[in-house]
């Protein structure tokens, strides 16, 4: 197994942790805790989850580092990125869309975080699914 394969594996695992954590807490645990009786117990479980931390920022850190290293190993230099040469290619545009969506998701986490945002969380989940689709397109594209 070469270094690139290890980076891809770490990247995929970090994405699974980030997205899985987000989907689980938004669609399963969050909704279930609203039904716990007495409500104080549900609140305590939620607070304990927040105190123990989540997978968001650590996963994003791993995704950022592994993403940059994979770009470097693909021989994409700073010159390619700054000159616009990379962004003019189909795969560059796919990467740009992916980076913008991940940036939106990170902004959501930064500004909204764990506060109630019933409608925004669904937009965040749509962005997550779009990132997965763009990642598949990036890997399996005919370009």
Question: What would you say this structure looks like, in words?
Answer:
- The protein has one domain (3-140).
- It is 80% helix and 0% strand.
- The protein has helices at residues 3-34, 39-52, 56-73, 78-83, 90-111, 118-140.
- Helix 1 (3-34) packs antiparallel against helix 2 (39-52), helix 1 (3-34) packs antiparallel against helix 3 and helix 5 (90-111) packs antiparallel against helix 6.
- The protein is elongated and about 60 Å long.
How would you characterize the largest beta sheet? none
Please tally the helical runs, counting DSSP H or I stretches of 4 or more residues: 6
Rg over CA atoms: 18 Å
- Classify the secondary structure makeup into a structural class: mainly alpha
How far apart are the termini? 25 Å
Low-confidence stretches: none
Order of helices and strands, N to C?
Answer: HHHHHH
Count of the separate structural domains = 1
Proportion of residues in β-strands = under 5%
Q: What's the β-strand tally?
A: 0
Multimeric status of the protein:
single chain
Shape annotation? elongated
Mean pLDDT across residues: 84
Helix content: over 70%
Main features:
single chain; 143 residues; mainly alpha
